[in-house]
Write a structure and sequence with these properties.
Blueprint (H helix, E strand, L loop, with lengths): L7 H15 L14 H8 L3 E5 L9 E7 L4 E5 L3 H6 L1 H22 L5 E5 L13 H14 L2 H14 L4 H11 L3 H10 L4 E3 L4 E3 L2 H9 L2
Parallel strand pairs: 1-3
Antiparallel strand pairs: 2-3, 2-4, 5-6
Amino acid sequence: MCSTYINLNQMEDITENILKKSGIPHTWQGSITKIDIDAIIEFDYDLDISWENIDHFAKDGVVLAAIIPQTKQIYLNISQEKLFKEKMGTMNFSKAHELGHWILHITQQKNYEQLSFIESDHYFCRSSATRRPEEIQADMFASSILMPRGIISGAIEELKNNKSIDWHDLYEMKDAFEVSISALTTRLKQLKLIYIDEKNKKIYSSEEAAKGFISMF
């Protein structure tokens, strides 16, 4: 059973409080610093992170990570080690996703059954209609804690004040956060900080700006 749905503002409060307790800045201070998700997991929540082959957790699909509540253990799937090394953002997101399960579902509900994170390589592309509510909430948690609202909003506002935002800016930003470009653009759209025309991949400061530009032609 899924716990009560947590909306975006509530999730921001949850993750900001976690960062405050960890002594990690969550407001814009002129630059982006990667959130040390390993330290939060290991020191603040006393969870272990290790590598194990966990392909057997799913009959189909790709298992990236899993959490075993009974042993307070987060496993990264060693069969996906090459993917994780090539895409650090995927590994960071997987860890944060599992921490989200621990905070939102396991300790809240005292539901100590095994929860596994089953995804394809391009997991942001999967329709939410095919995913359990717990998975969607854990993704929201991961996105919120890895890219704090105060920091990402400040970074985008500074870019908007200086120039129009382009893809080079976004790739630099995703490297600074150490997330995937899909995670970053999803977060930016979620917070309505930018608008991306999916047809031509052009970036606008807002949906209104995009509509205004298109109406000129």
